[in-house]
Every structure is written in structure tokens, then in C-alpha cells.
Amino acid sequence: MEIPPLSEVRRLTEKKRDAWWTVLLVDPVATPLVRWTAKYARWVTPNQITWAALFLGLGAAACFAQADWMWLIIGAVLYHVSFILDCMDGKLARLTGRGSEFGGWLDYVFDRIRVLACAVALMGGQYARTGDVVYVWLALVVVFLDMLRYIDALQIFKVRHSMRKKIKARARAARRSMENQHPDAVEQEQRDELHFMEDLLRDNPAADIDNTHDELAEQVATGQVSAAADEPENADGTTAPAREKVVVDLHQEFKSRFPWYGKFRSLLLRHRIRAHLISGIEFQMGVFIVGPLFGAVLPVTIGSGVLLMVFELAIIYKLLLSTRDFERTLAKYPVPEPVAVPAEVSVPAQAEAPAAEQNQKQGDDARI
What we know:
membrane, CDP-OH_P_trans, CDP-OH_PTrfase_TM_dom, 2 strands, 2 domains, transferase, mainly alpha
């Protein structure tokens, strides 16, 4: 395999948006290592790196269990190296094209095992050293928060995906209903072509970084920026008539309430840092690296947990506002009226009676 230059490796393997801990403290080490490792891709696979990350994480847990400050420092270093390897497996998979669904599952499960083992070992060691039962509760809290953020992220993704599907379905149904009922007088808004701002920003990252969302929507509407059509063809394969492009932004209310957020987010994106500043990654690093390094496991763990919950609640609040935008968008498309089905010729009641009596009699005979 021909290894591309480091700049190209960065483009291929590093995420456009990532946690600030990863961007500042992991990628500068992990990406060059991935480029070097790719030279030996015949012998080193992403799954092997995933296993190595797990073993180092378990080694960190063993150090944490000793509870001595020197062992805590060694454990913190091992945990950070383990996290670097955890980032390398995905990068190597993207660079070499050797990723797999099983590898993704393995990475997720091993991450949870590492967090569980380190939480129990770190807090258990501190409990054995101090006898303070609060460390037992902290172990439970760390594991709970780690699982909560994953469940929350998964459910939010499902809700957002569901909202998009419902908007598209309602728009199609409303348009087809209007075309069937009034084929010569269909309003232009019912012929609109839907595009979602999230998709446009993903395809046009410069607009996301520069915080020019409104300008991008206008450019798409006027055809200055190309966007994939929602329904480019009719059902029979013929080309559909040109429709006005409409951009659906499910974050309008959030932007109107917090106008400063766009500039703040834009500033972070220029450095590939996502606005979710305290995510699960920063939470783990606070608990398993910062706390042990400074001998402040208790206060740093509590502080990291509080900050994680603050940002998770902010995301939930943003989702709440997004659902309101969803309801307003859905209301623009009227619910299609059900198609009337011609009534079948009814049988006269006098004719039905003998048949009903006969059926009843047969039923009575069967019960006897």
C-alpha cells in the first residue's frame, strides 16, 4: 500500500468535528502513528489495535487499584495511551479500508469494559485507602453517566431521524393529494423540493465554519449551490417538473434564542472542535487522567460529572426546541384527506336475516 503524505492522512482519518481533548491532545500523536502503522498493515489490523487498547486500559485499572499516588500517575498515563490506541483503530480502518461492522461493535464493547474496570478499580482503591463510602457511590455514578450519555445520544439520533422522515412523508403526501384533487391549481409551496440544513452543512463545511447558514439556504433556493433533490423523478421514471428548493432548518428557535451561539460554534469549528465541550470523552479524561494526576480524584470526578450533565441537559433542551420547529414545519403541509371508497351494494335486511338465523343455528348446534 502506498502511504500518502501526512496532510492527506489527516484529511482522510481525522473527523471534521471532534472533542477538544482529541483534537489537541490525541490527534497530534495518533495521526502520525497511524501513517507509520499503515506501512505494516499486512500484520497490524484495526481489531488488533482495539485489543491492545483494552489491555492497556486494564493495566491502568490495575494501577488505579493500588491507590498510591505514584501508581495513580502511571495509571493515568496508561489510560491516555489506551485512548490514543482507541482512536488509532478507527483511523487505521479508514485509511486502509479494512474497517468492519464487527470491529465497530468490538470497539464499543471494549470501551465500556475499560470504563467499568477503571471506575471500579480507581474508586475501590480509594475506598480501601480512606474507608470513605462516597467512593463506592462515585464508582456507580461514573458507570451510570457513561452509559447514560450513550443512550441519550442514540435516542436523540433516532428522534431527529424520525422527524426528518415524517416531514418528508407529510410533504410528499400533501403534494400528491393536491395534485390529485387540483391538478391544474397546485400551489407552488406544495411542489417544493425539501432539503435539510444539516445535510447542506455537511456537504458545504465552509458555510458551517463561517456561520453563513442563511446565505447557504438562499444560494440553494436560487440554484447557486447544488443540492441533491428529494424526488428528482416521477414514479414512471420521467423527469419531474422543476420545483422551488426549500431548506428546512430544525434549529431555528434555538438560533433565535441564542444568537451568540453561531459565532461561538464557528470559532470552535475553525479548529475542528465541536461545541459540545464536555462530552463523554472529556468526562473520562477528567476522572481517569486529571483526577489521578493531581491527586484530586473526588473533586475532579464530581466536577466532571456535573459538567457532563450540564451539557447533556443543554443538548436535550436543544432537542426540545427542535421538536417545536418540527411541529411548525409539519403544520405547513395539510394532512391529506382520506380517499373516499365507493360503498358496496348492500344486501337488504330481509335477505340477511335468514342467513344470520341459519348461522346462529349452526353455531348453537356446534356448541351442543
